[in-house]
Amino acid sequence: IRFQPIGGVSERVLLGQRVLIKTRDGKVVRGVIGSKPPHIMKPEELKQVPEIKDMYIDVGASSKEEVERLGVGVGCVAVFERDLAFLGGSDVVTGKAIDDRVGVATMIEGFKAVDGNEVDVYAVATVQEEVGLKGARVAAYSITPDVAVALDVTIASDVAGVPEQEWVTQLGKGPAIKVVDGRAATGLIAHPAVRDKLIEVARQYGIPHQVEVAPGGTTDASIIALNKEGVPAATISIPSRYIHSPVEVVSLVDVVNAAKLTALFSSKITSEWVTSLARRVLK
């Protein structure tokens, strides 16, 4: 079965993965991603990462008709078959689609802890972020927020082979408060007042945190910032290793601290502070 990616999936992590295909009638069909066996590849082919067009999903069928009898057809969606698991008996976990299920988990836990808030707080779990920030675009248009904070993962590049000066964030050192993201800052440039308020709250309540400049990628905050006449926006990021792979890795301590920061920021900002953002005058 030939397939196409939805969102940013690297060919490097696909080969040999087990997948689950959901049929239109709700059944699940198991398959594996394969390609030309290395034993019959030419020497130059062995040095290259196979392209998606050269891969396929093998469901154990011997004909197109057999595949169709399983209920698999054009448009069925396949996902990685992976369970969430702890690594080394620590607070570190690995699994698929942590980007951005962990953002939803952070939002839920943070929202439950919001208390005594002076301003209205909306919790929104968006769809299709990876394919054009589409859910955030329509949600922001509907809500018309005065301030926005996106919750997403960011690059934890503290791994072998990456010089320390190129580490965007580190695992276990706390959530990251974003300054900019995207190549050459083409994603979000966080609103300085919102960014600084997040840092202020983190320092006031002793929440370990990092300040992040991401050289690539972006989040829903980029499109929310452009809603209507503009929205002051920022991002709280959870450091994650191996983003866009079936084995993404995060620290649950970072997740807990991200939820705390989300809750405290939402609880402590005032309507006066929010109003002041719209009234800033450039001289």
Helix content: 25-40%
Rg? 21 Å
H and E order: EEHEHEEEHHEEHEHEEHH
What is the molecular shape? globular
- Per CATH, what is the topology of the largest domain? Aminopeptidase
- Which secondary-structure class do the elements indicate? alpha+beta
- How many domains comprise the coordinates? 2
Largest sheet: 4 strands, antiparallel
How far apart are the first and last residues' alpha carbons, in Å?
61 Å
Instruction: Assign the CATH architecture of the largest domain.
Output: 3-Layer(aba) Sandwich
Output the number of helix runs.
8
Spatial order of strands in the largest sheet: 3-2-1-4
Mean residue pLDDT: 95
What key attributes describe this structure?
28% helix; Elongation Factor Tu (Ef-tu), domain 3; 4-stranded mixed sheet; single chain; 2 domains; 8 helices; 283 residues; Aminopeptidase; globular; 4-stranded antiparallel sheet; alpha+beta
What does this structure look like?
The chain starts with 17 loop residues before the first strand and ends in a 5-residue tail after the last helix. With 283 residues, it is α+β, with helices and mostly antiparallel strands. The strands form 3 sheets. A 4-stranded antiparallel sheet has the order 3-2-1-4, with no helix packed on it. Strands 7-10-8-9 form a 4-stranded mixed sheet. The mean pLDDT is 95. The relative contact order is 0.16. Helix 3 crosses helix 7. It has helices at 43-46, 64-69, 98-113, 134-143, 192-204, 221-224, 252-268, 271-278, and strands at 18-22, 28-34, 56-58, 77-80, 85-86, 92-95, 148-155, 176-180, 210-213, 233-240, 248-251.
